[in-house]
Design brief:
By secondary structure, the protein is α+β, with helices and mostly antiparallel strands. The chain has two domains: 67 residues, Double Stranded RNA Binding Domain; 36 residues, no CATH class. 45% of the residues lie in helices and 15% in strands. It is built from four helices and three strands. It has a three-stranded antiparallel beta sheet. Helix 3 crosses helix 4.
Length: 108
């Protein structure tokens, strides 16, 4: 299970409100762990996720798939106002690239 838990997406950030570091896991957005140091915060959230995964397995509930192992197509659809679409089309044409390439570079 430790290997599985290692594949989840962790982040440590400073919480100004709590005046401590908060450890987070993207696959378990309701979980967090506060500590005085970033290292201890990461250790804490990893331990908590390991316990939650064990509980989910014991109760035969689904365990989220780690983002790192999910397949991504590289495509997603986004709706924008027609005026923005027009502006992007003009920028792409003036730059000699497709709208897709223009938007991709803006997102990168």
């Amino acid at each position: 299970m430790a290997k599985e838990v290692d594949r989840f997406t962790y982040r440590v950030t400073w919480s100004d409100e709590d005046q401590e570091y908060v450890g987070l896991c993207a696959e378990f957005p309701s979980l967090s762990w506060l500590e005085a140091s970033p290292e201890k915060s990461l250790q804490g959230i990893r331990k908590l996720v390991k316990e939650v995964v064990a509980d989910l397995k014991r109760s035969k509930d689904p365990v989220p798939e780690p983002i790192s192992t999910r397949p991504f197509s590289g495509k997603f659809m986004v709706r924008i106002p027609p005026e923005v679409h027009r502006m992007l089309a003009i920028q792409a044409a003036e730059s000699g690239v497709s709208i897709n390439r223009l938007v991709s570079s803006k997102l990168a």
